[in-house]
Amino acid sequence: MSLTLDKNEILTWLRETNPARLEELWRRADETRRQHVGDAVHLRGLVEISNFCARACAYCGLRVANTKLTRYRMDAAEIFAAAQQAVTFGYGTVVLQGGEDYGIRTDWLAEVVRGIKSETPLAVTLSLGERPEKDLAEWRAAGADRYLIRFETSDADLFTKIHPPLGNHKCDRLVILRQLREIGFEVGSGIMVGIPGQTYASVAEDLRLFHELDLDMIGIGPFIPHPATPLGNGGKFFPSGNGEQAPNNELMVYKSVALARLVRPDANIPATSALATINKVNGRELGLRRGANVFMPNLTPLKYRRLYEIYPDKACIAETGDTCHGCLNRRISGLGRHIGSGQGGRKQRQSAAEMPAGQEWGYA
Ligand code: SAH
User: Cα(first)–Cα(last) distance of the chain, in Å?
Assistant: First the structure.
């Protein structure tokens, strides 16, 4: 499928402030979502399995230099119990996420994945950072279905500044995304919106890249400053001063989500927890009405949840699985939508030539 919304049009939408015009963007995104992935909202149970991290990311509270943070790593029994909860609540997927923790041994995690796959009907998604290709291949062979790794920003200089390499190991998340696809994973990526130093034009390029990479899943959340990080004082880290700085506000996230839906009509796109954090009242609902079709309820045991502090003041920090499930049910039916059944993976990848007539999209 070709990209019929070009980068200039994307940029114009990102700068749009007229509420009536924006209503049109929301309407198109919602309609595209409905046509391509339907009304089901798929739920992925998020289990934050470790907050150890070898990296020094300037944005993230788990960064190795944050010595104030108490570190934890869940054991296999705790991870199985969380996966079991996902089954109980009828979620089709469990997402095992963590810092880039080399204390998570490759064979150990492979065994955990094999256990979940043999004892539950769940799809298993991993999000464990930039592990070597052989680790990723071993986890795929153990049955893991999907891998999430955001490229965070397509601005290579900015990315290197906020995500310094580990030792002399050059890091290129676009290369990793290609490897993941070759290994046979469904592949997810995404960005933070409003990183200090990130311009509107670079967000437009991020969106173009979502299309080019043909991503199966796209996560977009606002950058939220964490006081224990170099970016904790917000804009002061990289003064932009030229009016080009992309804001890290709700509206900018909704525009990016809506445009992500238009450039990747059949992708799975969550209303992210970071969005729910900056608008705890109805950020999720607005995300789901402006292009998103997935939500990731948190199944991390409460005793660990507070410690997985990638950013402060996270939404739903004290919600048990039960209360969360009830709340989500209400929110989703309030939108006239329903909770998806099954694993909710990407439908068959199609080339443009195979697309049925009338399914082309865009602003022709
Ligand atoms: N270690 C894994 C998982 C990181 S947490 C990895 O690096 O891929 C998942 C996502 O949280 C990150 O990709 C990033 O986009 C987001 N995140 C981290 N710190 C954040 C912050 N301060 N504000 C908003 N999002 C943040």
Answer: 13
Query: Ligand 1 pocket test: which of 59, 60, 195, 275 has the largest number of ligand atoms within 8 Å of its C-beta?
Result: 60
Q: Could you tell me the distance, in angstroms and rounded to a whole number, from the CA of residue 148 to the centre of ligand 1?
A: 11
Mean per-residue pLDDT, 182-211: 97
Q: Tell me: the pLDDT tens digits for 233-271?
A: 754 445 455 659 999 999 999 999 999 999 999 999 999
Q: Are 92 and 340 a contacting pair, CB within 8 Å?
A: yes
Q: Which domains does the chain have, with CATH numbers?
A: 3-346 (3.20.20.70)
pLDDT tens readout for residues 41-81? 999 999 999 999 999 999 999 999 999 999 999 999 999 99
Taking the C-alpha atoms of residue 12 and residue 344, their distance in angstroms, rounded to an integer, is 33
Q: Residue 54: which of 127, 107, 130, 106 has the closest Cα? A: 130
Ligand 1 within 6 A of CB of 58: no
Contact between 176 and 213 (Cβ < 8 Å): no
* Token digits of residue 16: 């749009």
- Ligand 1 site, residue 231, Cβ cutoff 6 A: no
| Helix/strand/coil for 234 | helix
Structure tokens at 321: 């699985």
Taking CA atoms, 237 is separated from 118, 229, 241, in Å, by 47, 10, 12
Distances (CA, A) of 92 to 41, 42, 52, 123: 11, 8, 27, 6
| CA–CA distance, 81 with 49 (Å, rounded to integer) | 12
